[in-house]
Amino acid sequence: MVVYNLLLDILKLTVAGVGVVWIAFYLIKPYLDKSERLQILELKKAADNQTLPLRLQAYERVILFVERTNPSNLLLRVNGGALPAVEFYRLAVQEVRDEYQHNITQQIYVSSRAWAVVRRLKDDTLNLLNNTLASLPETATGLDFSRALLTHLGQLESNPYELAADMVHKDLEELF
Prior knowledge:
By secondary structure, the protein is mainly alpha-helical. The chain is built from 6 helices and no strands. The chain is rod-shaped, with a radius of gyration of 31 Å.
């Protein structure tokens, strides 16, 4: 009987101790959570202070890519009006690919949506260049290629380069 009472007393004290610890934990938990959230916010703020300039530069590079791959600007930079259309096409395609490769690391700092716009624009530009070359006779010059390219671009319902720039601007606005 003495052993039974002793075990019962130990059980009562254990349950009471567990109850006290449980109540104390749930009373202190909100303070611990708040402290943890504040530390996370401070870390995010410090990280943002370091990465924000890099992200802004990346968005600048993406907008620059959009502008540089726009056929209106691309044709001025490549400037191969005297070349055969096939050679001018190769130079233009190489310029678009080089520009894309030059900016490929920017995807680290921009949103996946903004980078999808860049990839899509590159692919659409290459398709536009391919379709333009396919529509020309083999004897066409670079000047003919330029005219046909601008004509194809003008026939589109909306300018994909302006749409891409607008989408990147909207994405950038979400940062602030």
